[in-house]
Description:
Blueprint: H1 2-28, H2 32-45, E1 49-51, H3 61-73, E2 94-95, H4 117-125, H5 132-143, H6 155-166, H7 172-183, H8 195-203, H9 210-221, H10 223-227, H11 231-238, H12 242-254, E3 279-283, E4 290-294, E5 301-303, H13 305-315, H14 322-362, H15 364-369, H16 380-387, H17 391-398, E6 402-405, E7 408-411, H18 425-438, H19 447-456, H20 463-472, H21 478-485
Parallel strand pairs: 2-4, 3-6
Antiparallel strand pairs: 1-5, 3-4, 6-7
Amino acid sequence: MAKQGLTLEQKQTQRLALEQQRLLGMVLEKSDAEMAEFIDNKVNEIQALEKKSDEGDEYDNNTDRQAERENERVPADEVNAETNGDDDTMAWYRYFANNRSRDDEYYAPTAVSEKTLQEFLNDQLGELELDETQQIIARAIVGNIEDNGYLRRSTTEIADDVTFNDGYVVDTQQVEEMLKVVQSLDPPGIAARDLRECMLLQLRRKPSNPDVDLAITIVDKYFDELASMRFDSLARKLDVDAETLERVFKHQIRRGLNPYPGNAFGTRSYITQQVTPDFDVELDEDNKRLTVTLRNNIPALQISESYTLMSKRYKEGTPLTVKETKEKKQIMDAYQRASMFIEVLKQRQETLFNTMSAIVKCQQDYFMSGDERDLKPLGQQQIADMIGKDVSVVSRAVSNKYVQLPWGVKSLKSFFSEDINGASRHEVYDDLKKLVDAEDKRHPLSDDALCDRLKEMGYKLERRTVAKYRDALDIPSSTVRRRMAK
Length: 486
């Protein structure tokens, strides 16, 4: 009989473990909005489960102790260097636990949208000591900057706009002076009139050294040779060896510059998405360490006091009637289901936090700079190995999840890309954009020509892949581009 009881207990434990894993997979891939509805349904379905009230109710001792242990392990507002390793930049994280204290106020998720480039620039202008006329001119310049970061309207046209539309009589020289002010704002390279100026604005922000100085000379004096990738000609004209030229091009120009500085921001035509960021990633004041915060958008749950008391009574071994024995099964089943659901929510929060922390650690350069060229090739299996989970868990964890960054809201899926000869897809996209921007508009490069140029740059891509990337970037075919140039 003891053996039969042990077998039944093992089967029940296995069944509960499988049910818990199934439930965890289900809640991992849900967004916060879906979780709110899902939790409401579970509270109505499981009688022993309830949301914690704001009043001084008695809480389940097991839940309280669990929350205390959780808060001791990963405090909400203290340093946690557990995943730091030797990297001081990733020295601390904040983690809002699933179980909050009874004094915490719960805020419903709110819809957020990305801050536009224009809003970001105007915020910076507001911090400068400019007189009224200068502010008007500067904001007129910002208003004419395209979503990719370029200023295509001439300073003469902007001066006319300010004079006739705003009533301030200004000349081109005043606009030129304020354009320099706007070009000094972040992100570097903003308000450039063309690619060459965009690159020079970024290079001149860098601390001077031989490689940076050489890069400035290349872009300033030999931009046509650079655009055409005529490295042999460049090496002769600059009197430098091929190794030096390759190093400067790779690190200072190709990977060190962003040809579209405005692309990290939301567009003015961007329609507010009803999404709630699950995370915040911020730099501390001295810009040396990153802080990852998992927002506490899920209401805290507890086992109701009545079910807690009844479960304790039945555990004490008091003799029971037939009716009480039947009631005990129902009570203990509800208590067990409620406990399991609370534990699943706790595991969800821990898995989400660990996943985001691992992503930040792998894509640290991007989170420090905001430049998409700093995104490295990254697969979900790599994150799964780091957090000790199956890749299917990571896939669910990043589904419908967003992070709030200083420059906007990003999907967690956007941080993953395949490895293309040691580069990420984002780098290939940027180099493809550069080739199209620098082409002779009357004789645009075909997909075959683009494929050959990219191969010269070290990317082993097929023509159909290049065509797919071109389509993804909304770049028309060479035939359409030729017609557009006429």
